[in-house]
Amino acid sequence: MKRLGLGGLFFTWLYGVPFLLLVGLIRRTSTPYTPTHDAARAFGATTDALLTAGLVLNAVLPLAGLLLAGWAGEQGWRRHFGWAFGGMALLYLAVALAGSMATSTLVGHTPADQEPEPPVGHCVPISGGRGCPGG
User: Fold this and answer.
1) Based on the number of CB atoms within 10 Å of its own CB, is 64 exposed (0-12), middle (13-18) or buried (19 or more)?
2) pLDDT tens digits for range 83-101
3) Count of CB atoms situated within 10 Å of the CB of 129
4) What whole-number distance in Å separates Cα of residue 30 and Cα of residue 41?
5) How many angstroms separate the CA atoms of 106 and 20, rounded?
6) Can you give the pTM of this predicted structure?
7) 70 touches 77 (CB < 8 A)
């Protein structure tokens, strides 16, 4: 049972964390159809949650796996999780490179909404005493 738990933890880090980061980066670089400001904020919040979860789990899972493998006396899994620290650093480096190439921040970015401008309901006279343009 402990080997299954440690294996699940390791493969969650190995495949789940890059998946979360990749989906977050794809969402961050896409231009979604967000018709209102609230929809744009919700899209940005979901993207932030994916990126933040990926970055936090990238640090937590290898550390927890190393501690649990040491506690369980599993030397093979300790080696796996020890090497995972190198992979953890590589993932952070890849996200840092993506962040340095981005035009704005990776976390905390809200895409532009595509809500049309409200129609003009009244006319403000132009200075100089002339009437409104067009009538």
Assistant:
1) middle
2) 999 999 999 999 898 888 8
3) 6
4) 14
5) 14
6) 0.74
7) no
